[in-house]
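Predict structure. Chain length: 112.
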Amino acid sequence: MRNNLFNLHLRWTHAGNTCLKLGDKMPNYFIPVQVGGLLMAMQPTVLPPALAPLPVLDASDVVEPPLPPASLKPTVASPPGTQPSAGPPRRLAAAFLLSVAIAMLSGPLLLF
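Prediction complete.
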């Protein structure tokens, strides 16, 4: 009964796949593996080990000490006559744009 329902499900969901229309001629490797079925086929010497018992936790293992109180950092005054930079210098930006332009213009020349 279960095999017939499985075949009916395959025919309904995969109507365009001709391999799944084999019915009773379907090979065994088309049938999905049952949960835990492979563990029964394995020898006991190659089975994965059992999980180790979990250690007992105390409150000191879990609770963290409190964080120190927050404090304000003293502000550092900038020397007079200097301003914070707003970005990279103009020479650096110009050099970058020039190198990009040269690379773009010399690229087609390398193809010939």
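Summary: Residues 1-45 form one domain.
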